[in-house]
Amino acid sequence: MRILLHIIIIVLLTIVTQIGGIIYLIAVLLIKRTSKKRRLKRIGIFAGLYLSATFLIVPNVAPIFGREKIKETEFIKAHSFFYKLANRNYVRPELNSTLQNISLDLQKFNYGLKLIYLDANFPFIDRFPLLPHLSHNDGKKVDVSLIYEEPNGQLTNKKPSVSGYGVYEKPTATEYDQNADCKQRGNWQYDFPKYLTLGTINKEIEFSEKGTRELANLILRQNSIGKLFIEPHLKKRLNLTNGKVRFHGCQAVRHDDHIHFQLK
């Protein structure tokens, strides 16, 4: 049972962080089973090794694999420290530059409004899955938050969920319901992120059509971008007519809680 538990922890840490599993294994091997307070020692060694690797070693090794950390500025931020702690904030240099351009253009539209990113990619190895996503595996993809507004109509950097995912801008009664269609076809996972919010916050804010439309158009104007995924009812509501706007397919999850875009 002890070995099985270690295997489960290694698998989970690998799924969530890519490097956590192997670091946990190292921590287990470094502390003998006969050592006093071995669990506490393992936790301490794991934490020290993991933090050192994540913030000191990985950023310097990732460029060998053609990836780099998203460069944060006063205009571009991670929604949560988790995305940086879990090594989910790596992209190709071209996408990094594109993100900077979008964030600067967003300032011209509304000063103080930040580009808030969610999951991007792991630092190493193409085709290594970044679950629960299907395609964030080559450094070319990134998710960003929708734009919201205060009750007085002022655009805000606040978001409605702790994780950044799972709080949907649902279709109205007159809009096409892609979620219902996909689930009717047997794609039960389509709205699964509603279980990944980690809690809802800022319940006073509302979805901003104006702000999200402008953000989507700023993304679409970038020559480096090949595709943008957003839920069909939002595509129509925001009048996004650019050919780069695509439907992601029922095998994925719904995109009315974030925008996904990727390099050509």
Strand content: 5-15%
By CATH, the architecture of the largest domain is named 2-Layer Sandwich
Number of H/I helices: 8
The count of β-strands is 11
Mean pLDDT score, rounded? Answer: 96
Categorize the overall geometry: globular
Order of strands across the main sheet: 5-11-9-10
Helix content: 25-40%
Distance between the termini: 47 Å
The level-1 CATH class of the largest domain: Alpha Beta
Give, in order, the helices and strands.
Answer: HHHEEHEHEEEEHEHEHEE
Key structural traits:
264 residues, alpha+beta, Muramoyl-pentapeptide Carboxypeptidase, domain 2, 4-stranded mixed β-sheet, 3-stranded antiparallel β-sheet
Structure, explained:
The chain has 264 residues and is of the alpha+beta class. The chain has 2 domains: 2-63, no CATH class; 66-263, 2-Layer Sandwich (Muramoyl-pentapeptide Carboxypeptidase, domain 2), CATH 3.30.1380. It contains 8 helices and 11 strands. Strands 5-11-9-10 form a 4-stranded mixed sheet, with helices on one face. Helix 1 runs antiparallel to helix 2, helix 2 crosses helix 3 (38-61) and helix 5 (93-109) crosses helix 7. The radius of gyration is 20 Å and the shape is globular. The mean pLDDT is 96.
Draw up the topology in text.
Blueprint: H1 2-17, H2 20-30, H3 38-61, E1 68-69, E2 76-78, H4 81-85, E3 90-91, H5 93-109, E4 115-117, E5 141-145, E6 148-149, E7 155-156, H6 178-184, E8 206-207, H7 209-220, E9 225-229, H8 232-237, E10 245-246, E11 258-263
Parallel strand pairs: 2-4, 9-10
Antiparallel strand pairs: 1-3, 5-11, 6-7, 6-8, 9-11
Helix pairs in contact: 1-2, 2-3, 5-7
